[in-house]
Design a protein that fits this description.
Number of strands: 9
Helix content: 40-55%
Shape: elongated
Distance between the termini: 66 Å
Strand content: 5-15%
Order of helices and strands: EEEEEEEEHEHHHHH
Oligomer: single chain
Number of domains: 2
Length: 271
């Protein structure tokens, strides 16, 4: 018998409908999809229309028999539902019970568009910084072994050893920069990530400028190399700086919203 497939209404994934009389789950986002012949009434109260599907047992229940919980995935909150059976409650302990009033007060839908913009700007800047590091390494290797500028490149023991060591440090800093840039998308980490990103950016910029001077790039024999590196470096720094400033501003606004919600509900003492 050929299995029927439909598109998930949530993520658009392809879902095989294996049971026409039971709930089918999307393998991509775990959203429930009802079978065409499935009874839509509550499993415990047959005279009531079900409103949710338990994410553990996949049975359908009315409002009286379910509990909503909030889970964190990648810094974004989503809601899961479990019924009141002991096994299903135990399997849902990893998520926190939903406080509807608190969720309404800390609703961050207003920030979705700006968060996406911040992530794109900071992420692009950090990726370009890593590409800059790769180009810089290749340039230094070329200067070291294929030009007369090798006499101006310092070394410890072997030709090119300092180039390798400082290039590794530069790539490490750019990797940390990229990892921090990805954290600006997380609501409760956005403020801290924006501030840390600024600090790392300053450290990265100081390191790269100092490394360039140490390698005597001002007198390198390739006339277009320094403008190219400086232009790419400046563009990357500007993108990350703008993104980090935006993340700090939006993160501070979110921080105040979270704090205000906790104070309103008596979840923390106002100072």
């Amino acid at each position: 018998m050929q299995v029927q497939h439909i598109m998930c209404p949530v993520c658009g994934g392809r879902i095989p409908i294996e049971h026409n009389d039971k709930v089918n789950r999307c393998e991509y986002c775990a959203s429930p999809v009802l079978g065409s012949d499935q009874n839509r009434n509550c499993s415990r109260h047959p005279d009531r229309l079900a409103v949710e599907v338990c994410h553990v047992c996949n049975e359908m229940f009315c409002e009286e028999d379910i509990e909503y919980r909030v889970a964190d995935y990648g810094g974004k909150l989503f809601t899961i539902v479990n019924c009141d059976k002991e096994y299903c409650v135990d399997e849902s302990q990893w998520a926190k019970p939903l406080n509807r009033e608190y969720q309404q007060l800390v609703n961050m839908d207003w920030a979705d568009n700006i968060d996406n913009l911040i992530l794109r700007v900071t992420g692009l800047g950090a990726v370009l910084m890593m590409i800059f590091e790769l180009v810089f390494v290749l340039s230094m290797i070329y200067l070291q072994y294929f030009t007369t500028h090798s006499a101006n490149l310092p070394m410890f023991f072997l030709p090119g050893d300092i180039v390798i060591v400082l290039s590794i440090l530069g790539n490490l800093l750019s990797a940390i920069l990229l990892q921090t840039a990805l954290q600006v998308y997380i609501h409760e980490r956005q403020l801290g990530s924006g501030i840390v990103l600024l600090i790392i950016l300053v450290a990265e910029a100081a390191f790269l400028i100092g490394r360039g001077l140490y390698f005597n790039l001002l007198i390198n024999p390739i006339p277009w190399l320094l403008p190219l590196l400086f232009g790419a470096f400046t563009f990357s720094v500007i993108l990350v700086f703008i993104g980090s400033m935006m993340a700090t501003a939006v993160g501070y606004k979110k921080h105040k919203q979270f704090r205000s919600a906790r104070i309103t509900l008596g979840l923390t003492a106002e100072r």
